[in-house]
Amino acid sequence: MVRTRIGNFRVLFDVIFNPRNLIDSSSRYTNQSVAERLKTFISVTIFFFLNVIIYALPLSLQGTGFVGDSFSVRLLINNSSSLVSFGFLTYFLYHFGIWVTRRSSGLIPSYRVVMINTSIYLAIIFNLLWIGVFRTETLGRLFNWAFQMLFRTIGYYVGVPPDFDSGLETLPPGSILLSASERAIIVGLIIAFCYYLYVLYIGAKMVHNLTRYESAVAIGFVLTSPVIFAAASLILQQYLSIPSVFTVGY
So where does this one cross the membrane (predicted)? Predict the structure, then answer.
């Protein structure tokens, strides 16, 4: 039985206290018609992109982002693209991990789990991350150091070294002294990340009827997303002249 619908105000309660309710059981997708699957796809997509706008618009209005302008359409697109990219990358990796187990209930159930999860918890993670990068001093420099270490490491293995000549000021982790607000951001990131993985894990069990081990395999594929995103970003920048958001100063 579906206890929480998209658009229901109860979702606000479930996000914090009962995230399991965000996920439909596998029975909903049994013998679902093509029209019903299409309806689910459209409603979830609308929900996802509305939440992307809700996430990106406040950041863009504040002039926050890796584009050096104040609020502009370019800045809005740049802020939206990170969440959209990670959302669809997570969907691909998550469903691939489920497909590997040979127990998939279909593409649409995975799409619903990932996109609702991304719209809520990943958006919270990204908001806290950008607050740390652009609105704090020590934590922002530490995050920038972590970003650059990730991209330099991945760039070494894919043969595309990143260009950080106009990059962000960094701070090695050995010299950090975080304020109370910066520590609160880190705690918030950890909590949101745990929620994010938990919903994906529960989704694999409830929607696809996977075992604990099989659900963990799907989550393992999702955890590779930062590495794949960094590699794809560097390769696109190198060969298609599409700039990486992490190599543009602000």
Answer: 41-61, 81-101, 113-133, 184-204, 216-240
